[in-house]
Amino acid sequence: MITIQDKQFEDFISSVEITEMVSSLASKISEDYKGQIPLIIPVLNGSFMFAAELIKQLTIECEVEFAGVKSYKGIERGKSSTGWLTIDNYSILNGRDVIVVEDIVDSGITMNKIVSNLLVHSKTVKVVTLLYKLNKSVFLPDYFGRELDDEFVVGYGMDYNGFGRNLTDIYKLK
Ligand code: IMP
Ligand code: MG
């Protein structure tokens, strides 16, 4: 058990289990994209750790472009995501097979918007997420490591109020 700020979290997914999930996702993706050179877009901040380990294990050629998600400006600021990624020049997507890397899909609203926006420019878009809250999400990822119920988790890149991203295991809220 660990404490982060005012909340207690219990052991949930060990680093050994995470490594197994990442390896299996990397071999599926390497198989499916054999002969292609996908453009991999990890969505910051949460996916940085997962993306790094996943990409190291791919056996195909690929390019990598990290991006954040833009929030609405003005009165909507901070409330919701536009679904547009912080990519300077969207022409890098033209004709590309894009793989979006996400840490966790919750309501699925962010990924729904990101994918529909990316599809305007790119040839194909697939999404790989480490965790997927299947009963909450309106979005079905192409690849996921593990399904969750409606649990709040931290660690391995994922945060509670900005903390916990550096943990090597994943913990869930008690
Ligand atoms: P969605 O649009 O509701 O699917 O939100 C997805 C984003 O919310 C993810 O990319 C995470 O950054 C964040 N998020 C969702 N669930 C959790 C969680 O359990 N722990 C930490 N971050 C989460
Ligand atoms: Mg995220």
If you had to describe this structure to a student in words, what would you say it looks like?
- Helices cover 22% and strands 32% of the residues.
- The protein is an alpha/beta fold and 174 residues long.
- Helix 1 (15-32) packs across helix 2.
- The mean pLDDT is 93.
Keywords summarizing the entry:
four-stranded antiparallel β-sheet, globular, Rossmann fold, binds magnesium ion, five-stranded parallel β-sheet, binds inosinic acid
- What fold name stands as the CATH topology? Rossmann fold
- Looking at the overall shape, the CATH architecture is 3-Layer(aba) Sandwich
Quaternary arrangement of the chains shown? Answer: single chain
- Mind summarizing the main beta sheet? 5 strands, parallel
Tally of individual domains = 1
CATH C-level class: Alpha Beta
Class computed from helices, strands and strand pairing: alpha/beta
Number of strands: 11
Reading side by side through the largest sheet, how are the strands ordered? 4-3-7-8-9
Shape: globular
Beta content: 25-35%
Q: Helix proportion of residues, in percent?
A: 10-25%
Distance between the ends = 9 Å
Helical stretch tally: 3
Question: Taking all residues together, what is the mean pLDDT?
Answer: 93
